[in-house]
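Hey, I'm writing a tutorial for new members on how sequence and structure tokens pair up, and I'd like a real worked example in the thread rather than a made-up one. If someone can provide the structure for the chain below, I'll link this post from the tutorial.
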Amino acid sequence: MAEDKEIDRLIRNTLHGTPATLKFCEENEELRNNLSAAAHLIHGSSEGRFSITYCPGKGKENLTQAEIENVGFKYADIDEITAKYDPAKLKDGYNTMPDGEDIFYISNPALGLWAFKDRFKY
């Protein structure tokens, strides 16, 4: 959940990613007037380069499976995922799981999942 209830409400009801967010900003005055929410939607997107699975736990205030899937993300049970992808055993970067699955682990996704080199000028 976002720290701001208004941003949280907008995020829970809007598809993520730059093109979808920019289009929705054009069409929706409420989002256009709350660009902080738009920024969250863009920064929390993979821009279609990989899938994102949220595992919010079971607390009363956590996001529901429907809320997560409604905005284009995958949902999974936190206990099952933590058992399979134990953060204490993963290293940042590429990891090969015991079943042969290759994953890319990022211990701090706030560092810039949204960035990609085509946006940088050299």
